[in-house]
Amino acid sequence: MPTKTATQGSAYFLDHAQVADQKATYAVIVDNEAGVLHRVVGLFAARGYNIESLTVAETDHANHTSRITIVTRGTPQALAQIKAQLEKMVCTRRLIDVGQDEESLERELALVKVAGVGAERMEALRLSEIFRARVVDTTHESFVFEVSGAPSKIDKFEALMRPLGLVEVARTGVLSFSRGAQRA
């Protein structure tokens, strides 16, 4: 009778392929009441999921609803679980998986402070024009730029400003919408 090798017939030696994390963007329309944001964030914290970006604001005063936009990463199974848990929450009126639509719009706003003089100062100003960033504050030693666009655009602007004297960055977080006239 042939003997089994360690890799045959044992679950410990099965080749479990690693599944790459995916990015997901969810817009959650919720009741605008105390504690809702805490419950949503608690859902992520209790399961050990990270939130990369979170924005929330009241969007319909008459219906007392707010829109929470959440950007997160995980395996397809983890993202399906997050989506299901968000949909089950009593305060959730609607969940829109904006990330599923490749034509969706994602925008972010950032304030970027850059300190420098001479050539670095001029280069920062030149790059700001290329990125359509507005100067919202200036001194003899620094600029504060306001730049908006896709998160990748903000990342690139920040990376280019770093060697020119980047001091500080404040970002709003992602806002997202599906394209077209229909309501998502």
Q: Unreliable runs, pLDDT <50, ≥5 residues?
A: 4-11
Quote the beta fraction. 35-45%
Number of strands: 9
Q: What is the CATH topology of the largest domain?
A: Alpha-Beta Plaits
Query: Average pLDDT, to the nearest integer?
Result: 88
Distance linking N and C termini: 63 Å
| Rg computed from alpha carbons, rounded to a whole number of angstroms | 22 Å
> Can you tell me the CATH superfamily of the largest domain?
ACT domain
Number of helices: 4
Order of secondary-structure elements: EHEEHEEHEEHEE
Shape: elongated
Instruction: Assign a percent range to the helix content.
Output: 25-40%
The CATH architecture classification of the largest domain is 2-Layer Sandwich
Structural class: alpha+beta
Summed up, the domain count is 2
CATH class of the largest domain: Alpha Beta
Largest sheet composition = 5 strands, antiparallel
